[in-house]
Here is the input.
Amino acid sequence: MDAGLVRTYLGVPLYRPKVAFFEFSSCEGCQLQLLNNESSLLDFLALVDVVNFREAMKEKADDYEIAFVEGSITRSDEAERLKDIRSKAKVLVALGSCACFGGVNQLKNRFSLDWVKKEVYGNSPVETEPVRPLGDVVRVDLKIFGCPVKKEEVEKIVTNIAVGKAVAHPKYPVCTECKANENICLFDLGEPCLGPITRGGCDSWCPNSRFGCWGCRGPAEDANVEQLKKIMKEYGFSEDTILDRLECFGGFSAFADTLRKSGEKNKGTSA
Amino acid sequence: MIFRVFAREELKKLFDAMASKNKIVGPVEIARDHNGKPLFAFNEVNSFNDIKLDYTTTKLSAKKYFLPYKEDLAAFRMDENDWQKKVDYNISEPFIFFGLHACDINALNKLDKVLMGSVYPMPYYAAKRKNMFIVGIDCTPQPYCFCRSMGADTALHGFDMFITDIGEKYFVEILSDTAFNFLKNIRTAEPIEADHIHYMKVASEKNKKFTAHVDTTDLTKILDMEFQSDVWKQWGEKCLACGSCSKACPTCYCYGVEETVDINLRGAKKTKKLYSCNLIDFAEVAGGHNFRPERHVRLKYRYYHKHRGFVEAYEESLCVGCGRCGEACLANITVPEVIASVRGEEN
Ligand code: SF4
Ligand code: SF4
Ligand code: SF4
Ligand code: SF4
Ligand code: SF4
Here is the structure.
């Protein structure tokens, strides 16, 4: 997929890295995000030389420098394939929340594998393992958060890589962007929201449409999860409501585990 | 100072006279909260019926009109061998603030000192400030208002006219020629003694309604003494490091600047975004060293800037006591409670 001339930036020709896209267990929605803006797609392809992108092209090559990997690992053959990609790529990018934290898929880790197999595949069981994020199997050089990732953010990252600018994620929580967007706080409207503890960068995508954040980008740096749990209780939200959100995408799995265990213990004693 | 009075029905005429040729920004109701209480914001208003002059307060200050949350400072066009820079102060026409409370006018006066009175004035702010006409309006103190403690419950300057509801009439204080000329569009009269009495009654009744207070006596010294106090840690444990306090505040002006290159490499932008000292990387410098990695230290810093550093520089606090930060804070961290705890008092 050669988009012709190599781009120049301020008169300097830019190096055009060879890039490949791969997917594991996921909805492939993150890759789709990248394809669904025709106006910038050609510019994107001028910056990078895409040699492998199943969703968009037929040809395939094994010669790539940057691998964008979507999805989580749920089978042993997936782990092997990922290791192979890692050995070929100079830079491995985890694309989206499944790749970064396990994503929605990791919800199954709460149940026994036997039960999951039966429930999903009935009498024709297939091999399945507890869901793992890419980082549990191989070294990940860069994470791009979000379910799905935000196209503008990926384009910005790729542009920065191309012109040699540093790639940095916001460290602050979603609230910071939400307030700048002048949204009415969902707590004022009586709705729960994980915005105060979730990493920003999505431009408060959900609160902009009056939906509370579900934490798809995982924890902000210095996220005060304990305090938000207290606040949620003060606002009258049950522990289950909090837990549902904390465990949805896997970014908060450590916190969710603790909360689930304390919840089970409480239920045990009250029963 | 010139005072006039006018009948209640004249107010709409005054608004219409202003609105016929100008953009008007004022308090409007944007929703109801889950308890059915109205939520207000400053927005552009086209009709007198939409403006809510008896509003309690707005959730966010009017800051977006003079310190936008996000603002492009410069845009660049680039081609093979050259580039061009375009600077825009991002104000296309003068506008009228119709219905600012005293605290918010005082907030502008404080910002003027920093952003226009310093060695390097900020043109983006000045351009907007110089193109704004302000109609102030009196208010009823809410449970979170402590402007009186901060000396910001009355505005002495920084507005064009200030309207007070004295019952059957409005009492108006006029500070500019433009305001005087606008008032020629309606019927006004010289106030009589009875109007003065009504005005004073309204003022003294307002004073009685304050329930939140901050004791500012010797506060700069006390903050110095209590720099290591444990109370900061207690507040820090509650803080979410979300920066909502600064975003709601009419006087917080800190910002970050980001440069982005368009994906087609033919354009670039320098964008300013308001920031907060409560955010984790506020004091992070090149190389990754963070001078204030802990939440309580950052929260403390916010109080030290408002109530100590600024006071030493300008002999007044950088807080007008509007209470918005506490209202925006999900963790219920409010200025009166924090200051009282530092002073070792129960609030
Ligand atoms: S709606 Fe959510 S993200 Fe927005 S300010 Fe409220 S808590 Fe924060
Ligand atoms: S608001 Fe929360 S759930 Fe929605 S996109 Fe942003 S991080 Fe994800
Ligand atoms: S610090 Fe709080 S009370 Fe003071 S001016 Fe800012 S928002 Fe208002
Ligand atoms: S340092 Fe903090 S308190 Fe002071 S203006 Fe900046 S954000 Fe506001
Ligand atoms: S004081 Fe409140 S509003 Fe400010 S950063 Fe902390 S939790 Fe957020």
